[in-house]
Amino acid sequence: MRTPSESSRHPTSFHRALGNVISASHSPCVLTHCTYRATGMVGSHILTSLLENPAIARVDTISRRTPSAAAAAPQTKLTTFVSDDTSRWAAQLSSLTPTPSIFISAFGTTRAAAGGFENQYKVEHGLNVEMARAARDAGTKVYVLISSGGANKASSFAYPRMKGEIEEDVKALGFERTVILRPGLISGQRQESRPAEAALRFIAGIAGKVHSGLKDGWAQDADVIARAAVNAGLKALDGDVPPGSEKLWILGGSDIIKYGGKK
C-alpha cells in the first residue's frame, strides 16, 4: 500500500510511483464515506469489494483517515491519500495520472458531527459536488453516488432535500454515465453512535433472519450496497446498463439487492 498524505514531502516521487501501478481501463478512485471520527460503513465495504475484484488493477482512496482495509491491501493495487484538510481533496483527485475510469462517492457526515445542519450541508453537499466536478474535469467517465432512498430536491425535510440537491447538481455535470444508488436503511455496524438508526438496524436484523423479503424492501446491508455500487459502476463503464439508463442509472432497494448479491 502506498500512502501519500499531508506529511508527504516529495510530490515528484509520489507521481512517479502512481505511474507504476495504473491500468486506465479499470482504475476506480473511491472517495470513502467519512465522518470526523471514522471511515464509514459503506465506504469500507466498497474498498474491500474493489480490492477483491480481479478486474480492477488500481484503487485510490481519498479520506480523512486511513481505511482499515489498507494494512492488508496489495502495495501495487491501493494508494491512499489521507488528509483532514478537505480543501486538498479535489486537487489530489485532479493529480491522478491517468485519470480514474470510475469515481465512487460514499461521502457523508452527520448533523451532530458537523455541528448543525447548515454545516452538514456545506460539508456534504459542497464536497460531493466539488469532487464530482474535479472528476468530470479530469475526464472520469463514470460517476457512482451513494445517495438515499428518500432523496428529493423538493422535499420539505432538510436531509432528503439535501440528498436530492446533491443528485441534481451531480447529474448537471454531464458525466458520460452517472449511477445513483438510493438505499433505504443501511444495515451493519457503525463506529459512530446513532441510537435511532441502531434501533431500526436491530429490527432489520431480526426481520432479515425471519425472511430476507421482510427486510430487503426498506433496509440493505452495507456490504450489499457496496458490491452493488462496484458492480453497477463496472457495468456502466462497459455500457451494460438497462434500457433507458444510458446516461443516468438509478438503483433503488430491489436493484441494490439484485446487483449486490454474492455470485
From TrEMBL:
Compartments where located: Mitochondrion outer membrane
Superkingdom: Eukaryota
Transmembrane segments: none
Keywords tagged on the record: Membrane, Mitochondrion, Mitochondrion outer membrane, Transit peptide
Pfam families in the record: NAD_binding_10
Matches recorded under InterPro entries: NAD(P)-bd_dom, NAD(P)-bd_dom_sf
Family to which the UniProt record says this protein belongs: Belongs to the FMP52 family.
Protein name: NAD(P)-binding domain-containing protein
Source organism of the structure: Aspergillus fumigatus (strain CBS 144.89 / FGSC A1163 / CEA10)
